[in-house]
Amino acid sequence: MKVRVKLFAKFREIAKADYIDIEASNIKDLKEKLSVILNVNVQDIIVMINGKKLPDVEVLYNVKEAIAFPPTSGGC
């Protein structure tokens, strides 16, 4: 299934694009393909569908758009 992935933070800078269209069957597959395209570790990719972080085995059935961003840290 083709999924449009909206990129945030450094991923947007690396790709020089706001979106990437990727053919993927599940979230794990999507993360692996993103890691190759963005040249980052799979562990450094957070993917959310409809505002939720789902398990990597989640099938991307009828998913039109996902968001991807790197882990963030913060503090006071």
Word description of this protein:
The protein has helices at about 10-15, 25-40; strands at about 1-5, 20-25, 45-50, 65-70. The protein is built from two helices and four strands. The protein has a single domain (about 1-70), classed as Ubiquitin-like (UB roll) (Roll), CATH 3.10.20.30. A four-stranded mixed beta sheet has the order 2-1-4-3. It is globular. The chain has about 80 residues and is of the alpha+beta class.
Describe the secondary-structure layout.
Elements: E1 2-7, H1 10-15, E2 19-23, H2 27-38, E3 46-48, E4 65-69
Parallel strand pairs: 1-4
Antiparallel strand pairs: 1-2, 3-4
List keywords for this structure.
76 residues; alpha+beta; Ubiquitin-like (UB roll); 2 helices; 24% helix; globular
Helix content: 10-25%
Poorly predicted ranges? none
How many helices? The count is 2
Q: Report, as a whole number of angstroms, the end-to-end distance.
A: 41 Å
Overall SS class = alpha+beta
Order of helix and strand elements from N to C terminus: EHEHEE
Oligomer: single chain
Principal-axes geometry comes out as globular
CATH architecture: Roll
> Strand order, biggest sheet?
2-1-4-3
Largest sheet: 4 strands, mixed
Estimated share of beta-strand residues: 25-35%
Tally of extended strands? 4
Average residue pLDDT: 93
CATH class categorisation: Alpha Beta
